[in-house]
């Protein structure tokens, strides 16, 4: 599960370099998110622009990642393609996360 | 007698890794053919949920689980059949698939339970049978015009 992160001021950007977040990698994703966000001091943006597909297990892992960050750090999302966005809308998780069209928009918000 | 080949015929073992491989195979096949307009994204979402449910429930704890997926695209509609050699559905019923509540405190947010709700929202004519050979048979349709 290839995740990288970088900081921009107090913001932490985590980028997912995988085509799929699905049931076969959901646990690794959650564990890698914990490692990458350990040093977060403020808002975290999860950039999904390289992700083609998520299933409900992948969605659950993103929700779990937000929970493990705790209430002190917001988790925003950016770069959802049409299919990924559809999964968030169907489950109404689009009402839980702030979703930005691109990372640039997320950084400016 | 000429028998028409189904547009999709994939057999897989009942593991999450095989489900991923099957969906990747399906995606490659759909982009190779002039089926681009046929709701490939929605098809992948629904099949992922159906196949994951089989692996996680019908085939839970099994190492000899098998799944056979067939489908064809006709008159702007996918017709899918998923068979597996796992345990029958509870009470021989397709789960109700109620939407998990998302208007909650952060720590109470649901991390699962979305699968059947997604399938029921996106697919239609969903039917389940326990066949005489002891396999589960789930059939459903995905018309292009369903949002």
From TrEMBL, chain A:
Alphabetized InterPro entries for the sequence: Anti-sigma_ant (IPR003658), STAS_dom (IPR002645), STAS_dom_sf (IPR036513)
GO molecular function terms listed in the Swiss-Prot or TrEMBL record: anti-sigma factor antagonist activity
UniProt-listed Pfam families: STAS
PROSITE patterns: STAS
CDD domains: STAS_anti-anti-sigma_factors
Residue ranges of domain STAS in the record: 18-109
Family statement drawn from the similarity comment of this UniProt entry: Belongs to the anti-sigma-factor antagonist family.
Protein name per UniProt: Anti-sigma factor antagonist
Source organism of the structure: Shimia haliotis
From TrEMBL, chain B:
GO molecular function list: protein serine/threonine kinase activity
Keyword Kinase: yes
UniProt cross-references to CDD domains, sorted A to Z: HATPase_RsbW-like (cd16936)
UniProt entry keywords in alphabetical sequence: Kinase, Serine/threonine-protein kinase, Transferase
Domain (Histidine kinase/HSP90-like ATPase): residue spans on this chain: 14-140
Protein name as catalogued: Serine/threonine-protein kinase RsbW
Species per Swiss-Prot/TrEMBL record: Shimia haliotis
């Amino acid at each position: 599960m290839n995740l990288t992160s970088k900081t921009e001021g107090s913001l932490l950007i985590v980028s997912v370099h995988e085509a799929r977040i699905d049931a076969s990698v959901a646990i690794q994703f959650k564990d890698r998110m914990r490692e990458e966000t350990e040093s977060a001091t403020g808002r975290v943006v999860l950039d999904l622009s390289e992700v083609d597909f998520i299933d409900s297990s992948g969605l659950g892992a993103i929700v779990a990642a937000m929970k493990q960050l705790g209430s002190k750090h917001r988790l925003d999302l950016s770069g959802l393609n049409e299919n990924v966005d559809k999964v968030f809308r169907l489950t109404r998780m689009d009402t839980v996360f702030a979703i930005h069209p691109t990372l640039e928009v997320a950084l400016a918000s | 007698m000429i028998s028409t080949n189904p547009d999709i015929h994939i057999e897989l073992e009942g593991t999450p890794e095989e489900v991923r491989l099957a969906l990747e195979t399906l995606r490659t096949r759909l982009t190779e053919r002039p089926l681009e307009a046929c709701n490939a994204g929605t098809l992948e979402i629904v099949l992922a949920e159906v196949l994951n449910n089989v692996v996680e429930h019908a085939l839970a704890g099994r190492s000899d689980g098998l799944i056979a997926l067939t489908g064809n695209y006709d008159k702007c509609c996918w017709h899918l059949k998923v068979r597996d050699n796992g345990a029958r559905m509870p009470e021989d019923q397709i789960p109700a698939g109620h939407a998990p509540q998302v208007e909650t405190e952060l720590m109470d947010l649901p991390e699962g339970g979305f699968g059947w709700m997604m399938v029921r929202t996106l697919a239609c004519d969903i039917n389940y049978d326990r066949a005489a050979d002891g396999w589960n048979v789930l059939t459903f349709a995905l018309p292009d015009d369903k949002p």
